[in-house]
Amino acid sequence: MEFLDLPAVISTQGVVRLPGSKSISNRILLLAALAEGVTQVRDLLASDDTARMLDALKALGVPIVQTGNNDYQVQGVGGQFPLRFPVTQADLFLGNAGTALRPLTAVLALMQGHYRLSGVPRMHQRPIGDLVDALRQLGAEITYLGNEGFPPLEINPARIHAGMVTVKGNVSSQFLTGLLLASPLSAPVTGETLTVAVTGELISRPYVELTMALMARFGVQVEHEEWRRFILRGGQRYCSPGEIFVEGDASSASYFLAAGAIGGGPVRVEGVGRGSLQGDVRFAAALEQMGAGITLGDNWIEACAPQSGRLRAIDLDCNHIPDAAMTLAVVALFADGVTVLRNIASWRVKETDRLAAMAKELRKLGATVEEGADFLRITPPPAQPVAHVAIDTYDDHRMAMCFSLASLGTPVRINDPDCVAKTFPDYFEKFAAIARG
Most CB within 10 Å of its CB: which of 161, 318, 361, 366? Predict the structure, then answer.
């Protein structure tokens, strides 16, 4: 579909069952593959990104069987030590899935095989040099096949040793996540340790917390010292928990919660709640700060408009909600005052340069936007957003989903709406179900 025209929405109300979290889905698939034993994975996200991880693991010889709609049985390859994938030579295409390419790079660099990893052209523009530099400190042999510091990559067998590794924390938390997930494969024995030291600011810390929590579910504990040093004590190996469920996607929840806050509501999302492992669940607190009514349950969150009827602008450090903060940029169109979103430099190395893209598309809708190196300052239009604007989505699923919210004020066209297949293939159907024309 080249475009999708969304009519103006008068109000919103309903309940949405969320798809599985992309971040949790791909982490669990990789951990299950590395573990000893069989893991039953329940409620896996069905999307392009998880398909890339599934395809890669199968190509590496991991036995994976689909047992239900979104359920999979993964036979881990960790029964032998040191760990080896059954296939020691493979060319892997990872599309634009950073949650697949970055962790797989770290794991395969320690696997004593010969692998090539590539993706779509945009993936080849997304930096990976900080991760490669860290892996080389462990002895990994990795070659850039294109531009220095970027995929595609070639990995060759190498003599790996545990010890001290440093990695930059200010570009992508996926680099640290990859190192942590791969850390047991550096084979520190009992009495030895592997220490990963972070230099610079650690962005998106909740994603690192998520990684550590899931590693613990598979039997590997990582200690940290004030989120600057991460310590793996030797002798630990991944073991299957038997069965594990994927939470609903908290980033995807943000669109529906925002719709409830802007369009009246109540809108309830099911699949995440107050006990969620995901940092983006804190998006609800940001909406509450803007005046929205928020209620949380164990496995659900509900949002409705402020009693006054109008949201208010906020000035927010968004380091803790890097993906969901994009949704706040569009919510700013409907808030009184100037909204400032800070500490979002990581947007520039995502599926597109999201800082530049968001600024450009918000301006089409009549907003005044100041774009900085790591912030956006958004002044909403004096009346409703400009009608019948065609929003470009840059092959970025989150751009398409964020700007669907503009229809809560005016008719809007979303170009290339199918890009939502990356994480939420039926997003627009779910959005239409809560929209009242």
Answer: 318
Host domain of residue 113: 22-237
CA distance 249 to 65: 23
Please say whether the beta carbons of 312 and 291 come within 8 A.
yes
Among the candidates 237, 261, 286, a domain finishes at: 237
- Evaluate whether 272 touches 248 at the Cβ level (below 8 Å): yes
* 242 belongs to a structural domain: no
Kindly state whether residues 358 and 227 are assigned to the same domain. no
Query: CATH number for the domain including 396?
Result: 3.65.10.10
**pTM score, whole prediction:** 0.92
In terms of domains, do 291 and 369 share one? yes
Same domain, 353 and 262: yes
Give the whole-angstrom CA distance, residue 184 versus residue 148: 28
> What's the confidence (pLDDT) of residue 124?
98
Kindly state whether residues 126 and 253 are assigned to the same domain. no
Among the candidates 185, 203, 237, a domain finishes at 237
Name the E strands within 284-431. Answer: 293-296, 300-304, 311-312, 315-317, 335-336, 339-342, 368-371, 375-379, 389-391, 412-415
- Helices 98-109 & 48-59 angle (0-180, nearest 10): 20
Number of domains in the chain: 2
Residue 81 confidence (pLDDT) above 60: no
List the one residue out of 282, 153, 120 whose CA is nearest residue 205.
282
12 and 70 co-located in one domain: no
**Residue 104 domain-assigned (yes or no):** yes
Q: Is 374 a catalytic residue?
A: no
Count how many Cα atoms sit within 13 Å of the Cα of residue 63 in the half-sphere of its side chain.
10
Burial bucket for residue 65 (CB in 10 Å: 0-12, 13-18, 19+): exposed
Length of the chain counted residue by residue: 437
Residue 75 burial class via C-beta count within 10 angstroms: exposed 0-12, middle 13-18, buried 19 and up: middle
**Active-site residue, from 49, 130, 323, 392:** 323
Helix, strand, or coil here: 423? coil
